[in-house]
Structure prediction request, 343 residues.
Amino acid sequence: MLSVLRSRAAPLADLPVDGRRLLAARALRLFAAGFVSAVLALYLTALELPPATIGAIFTTALIGSACLTTIVAAVADRVGRRRLLMLAGGLMALAGVVFAFTDALWLLLLAAFIGVISPGGGEVGSSLALEQAALAEALPATRRTAVFAWANLVASAAAALGAFAAGAAVLLQRAGLGLALVALFATLSPAVEPRLTGAPASRRWLGLHRSRGLIGRFALLLAWNSFAAGFVAQALVALWFVGRFGADAATLGTIFLLTNLAGALSYPVAARLAARIGLVNTMVFTHLPSNVLLMLVPAMPTLPLAAAVLVLRHALSQMDRPARESYTMGSSPPTSARRRPAC
Prediction:
C-alpha cells in the first residue's frame, strides 16, 4: 500500500523548495483548522453562549473569510503573496489568543471575522487562494490537477490529525500554529510572486481581466454550494452528535479523523478520474451521491451508523476539490512570462 502511494506521489517528487514550503504551511494550517472545528462548538457552549450566538460567531467567521479573500484578490499582485500570507498567519495567531483568553462577545466576533476561523474544519480564507496561485506559478498545466490532488491529501490528513488531537488539547495551540505559519511564509522566495504580462492594472478587477466572466459564473455556483455546506459545517455536526447521541470530545475527534482521512485518500482518485472523464464531470458526478449520503446521516438510529455514513459521504464529497482548483487556475490567463502547456 505504501509503495503504491509513493509511486502515485511522483508529482510531488520534483516540486521546487517554495512548493514544498507551501505544502508544509497548508498542512500546518489545516491541522489547526481540524483541531479547532472539533472543539469550537463545545468550547463556546462551555462559555454558556446560546446556540444563536454560536451560530452568529460561525457566520461572522465565514463572512470575514469572504471579505478578506475579496480584498486580497484586489491587492495581492501589488502587495505580494508572501507578505499577505504572513499577515494571515498573524491574524490566525491573534484570533487564537482572543478565543483562549476572553468570553467577551464583541471580541469573539471580531476575532472570528479577522482570524479566518474554520467552523467546517476545511479550507477557508485568503491563504488558500494565495497558496494555490503561488503553487500554480511553478507548475505546467499538465501536472496541475495531480499536484493539487496530493496537496489536498496532505492538507486533509493534517486536518484529520488536528481533529483527533482536539480531544486532548486547548484552543491556545492555534495561536502557536499561527506564529509558526508566519515564520514559514517568511522563508518563501520572490519566485512565488506574479510576473504580470497580461492586461494593465487599470483594466483588472479583483485581480481578473479576460477570465472574469467565466470565473464570476463559477464563483456564483460555488457560493451556492458553500451556502448549503454552511448548514453542515464540522463544528455544527459536532454539536449535532453531542445533542443526538451524547458524543464526547474524544469520540468527535475519532469521527473527524476518519472523515478527513476518507476525504484525503479520495484526492489521488479524483485526479485519475479527472484525467479520464474531465474536470467538470468529476465535480458533478462525485458531488451528487455524496449529497444523498448526507441526507441519510440524520436517519441513522445509532452513533456508529451515523458516523459510518458520514465517513462514506466525505469519501465522495471532497473529490471535486482538486478538479475545482485546477479548473479555476486553468481558466485564468497565467501571470508568468513563461509559456505553459495547454490544459
